[in-house]
Amino acid sequence: MSTIVFFVAAIGAIAGAIGVVALRNPFYSVLALVGHLLSLAALFLLLRAEFVAAAQVVVYAGAVMVLYLFVVSYIGGGATQLTPGGAPLRAVAGGAVLALFAELAIAVLGSGLKAIDSDGAPYVSGFGTPAQIGEALLTKFLFPFEVASLLLLVAAVGAVVLARRRAGTTLGDEPEDATRWITPRSLFTGTMAEAVGGPHRAQTQPEPVEELRS
Amino acid sequence: MSIAWYLVVSALIFCIGAGGVLVRRNPLVILLCLELMLNAANLALIGFSRMHGNSDGQIFALIVMVVAACEVTVGLGLIVAIFRRRLPIDVDELRELQG
């Protein structure tokens, strides 16, 4: 049973990975990555990493991928060209990847680790459960845990600083004009007479000051 | 299934991700391929954690996920900033830093 689940999940993960690379439209790439992450979570479950599998589904496939989808739909992910230099560069990239895979396969299959061909250490009850992971995070790995939270904070602030709108950075932008937002009275509090242009007409838009503009 | 199978799957996913980083031009897809490589490393870490019967490797994988989330946040912020400046979203066009 676990063999069948392994092969289904492994084929799903590899197919998702190929889909991320091969699909032209970034939107479909993101969706392929979601499928890849779900298959990988199944593999994690087979390896008895329950908490990491749950975090993978909830945080990764849920939250991070939604962030990706927002950005893809914001910048309008049109279909793009696959390769920069055409066939020669693709061949070079393929050769490099094949060499990398050969090296990794040699490293895995030729390693001196004796337990690598076994099913792993005997399962003890409670391995990989949230209770055990949480206890390890708050005792043995407290410092990495705190550093990781600090890193998340720095990344969030950095993303806001990077992506905020700056005045005058694009060619079509008008310079920021603070007086645009100043109205002589609160909006929607005028009288009916003012609305039709009566004598006490509300000046909602201040006259542009020509001396300052020139 | 023996642990070696998981490691071979992990190596395959890593290579596919590396090929994507080499081949694709859209920085968004390059970020996705980086995610693939980080996930392959996570799979190897959890496989070794299972092999030794020690859950420290799973903590390592969780920290890798945190770092990946940070990388995604900053990378997507950069892409949005590039888009705001009306620059082409293409790593071959954005080469002012290559010296």
How would you characterize this protein structure?
The complex is a heterodimer of chains A (214) and B (99). Chain A has 214 residues and is mainly alpha-helical. Among the domains of chain A are: 1-78, Up-down Bundle (Four Helix Bundle (Hemerythrin (Met), subunit A)); 129-160. Helix content of chain A is 61%, strand content 0%. In chain A, helix 1 (2-22) packs antiparallel against helix 2 (26-46) and helix 2 packs antiparallel against helix 3 (50-75). Chain B has 3 helices and no strands. In chain B, helix 1 (3-23) runs antiparallel to helix 2 (27-52) and helix 2 (27-52) runs antiparallel to helix 3 (56-84). The termini of chain B are far apart. Chains A and B meet through helix 1, helix 2, helix 3, helix 4 and helix 5 of A and helix 1, helix 2 and helix 3 of B.
Name the CATH class of the domain at 1-78 in chain A: Mainly Alpha
The largest sheet of chain B, given as strand count, sense and whether it forms a barrel, is: none
Q: What's the name of the CATH homologous superfamily of the domain at 1-78 in chain A?
A: NADH-ubiquinone/plastoquinone oxidoreductase chain 6, subunit NuoJ
Order of helices and strands of chain A: HHHHHHHH
Major sheet size, sense and barrel closure of chain A: none
Rg result of chain B = 17 Å
Oligomerization status of the protein chains = heterodimer
One letter per element, helices H and strands E, the order of chain B comes to: HHH
| CATH architectural name of the domain at 1-78 in chain A | Up-down Bundle
Number of helices of chain A: 8
Mean pLDDT of chain A, nearest integer?
80
Backbone shape of chain A: extended
**CATH architecture assignment of chain B:** Orthogonal Bundle
Poorly predicted segments of chain A: none
How far apart, in Å, are the first and last alpha carbons of chain B?
49 Å
Task: Count the E strands of chain A.
Answer: 0
Q: What is the strand content of chain B?
A: under 5%
Helix content of chain A: 55-70%
* Helical residue percent band of chain B: over 70%
**Rg over alpha carbons of chain A:** 29 Å
